[in-house]
């Protein structure tokens, strides 16, 4: 992680829940709020209490996703009121644009969210907009809040032997992640459908992530005889994914459409930034579009097929090997820089 982490030793403890709970959590669309993993909180709480009673801990840190981790932090803070607590959030808790309201559970979860925000000693958010979503500009919350983005570790990329092709006639796009809710690949596939490829050239679009129903028609829609190939490659380990990012000509990010400006900073975007490769983001106006524009990448509306097609055409025209610009902005996401700020916050609390 960098020089700021020298001399830090840690351990990872895994908590195993009841087999019945594990089976329950495998069911899709469970109505629990904030999330299904709250079923494991009693076991996690007991393990944490045991560790704290046996060790010499200076600070408690909880991080979401998943938000249920903060409920464990809330219980631990009640038992150990003098133990400083930092609660870190990556996505909205209540009022998320992809989450349905569930009677009782949603209102109970919102009450717990408010309690966590009030009790935690420090609050960390990845963007200003995310902070505003949680705190509502309440001065009592804003005073203890801090914006720290997700980070990439350059050493993970430096250990990768890149096999990037110098073939000027082929163009490889890669997307890493999953589709769910209103985040769908349909517009992207339609844009590739209508994209005209110059004679003698070819385009390959590879998707790395969980299976999605729209992938069933890919072999028929983009046959092997076509100059445009779209393939679902399954899931790969994180280090392998970083290597494949470095080998791509263009990295594609698809964000969910919606109203208003987006507050999200996907960790996948930060992984893309670490690779140094060109980025195309299909997203509405907001955090992602601002970051990608500053990096010299391309942005298109996620529901506009023609705009996505035009962005793909421009990406191919700019060709591969075009590094990200705004080096100063990239530095902000390096793990040693983000980590140093987080460490300074901990030191301030102690």
From TrEMBL:
Residues annotated as domain Glycosyltransferase subfamily 4-like N-terminal: 23-155
SUPFAM superfamilies tied to this protein: UDP-Glycosyltransferase/glycogen phosphorylase
Coiled-coil spans in chain: none
Highest rank taxon of the organism: Bacteria
InterPro entries cross-referenced by the UniProt entry: Glyco_trans_4-like_N
Any GO MF annotation of the entry: glycosyltransferase activity
Descriptive protein name: Glycosyltransferase subfamily 4-like N-terminal domain-containing protein
Organism, as annotated: Thalassospira profundimaris
